[in-house]
Amino acid sequence: MPNLSLQILPATLEDLATLQAIGRKTFEEAFAANNSEENLAAYLEEGFSKQKLEAELRNENSQFYFAHQGDEAQRDVLMKLDL
Fold it and tell me: Count of CB atoms within 10 A of residue 62's CB?
């Protein structure tokens, strides 16, 4: 029987690539219909760049969390808190 328990864990610098992938996918799914391809591509590149996400992960007033089920971060669950 699969492990169905859900854990909420903070994202770390080691999670940067996963954070970037989830953020881009979620943003694209939510906003692609209301934006041109050019605008969407520009925002995905700038808004989810490794440099920007790394700065946010290092910012003590900004926290990201993943919902994990088993050993994998769930693709569609990401929380960002600005303190």
Answer: 13
CB atoms closer than 10 angstroms to residue 24: 16
Are the C-beta atoms of 78 and 19 separated by less than 8 Å? yes
Q: pLDDT tens-digit profile of 38-57?
A: 999 999 999 999 999 999 99
Residue among 32, 28, 25, 24 nearest 49 (CA)? 24
How many DSSP H helices and E strands does the chain contain?
3, 3
| pLDDT of amino acid 2 | 64
Query: Rounded to 5 degrees, what angle do the CA atoms 2, 12, 76 make?
Result: 50
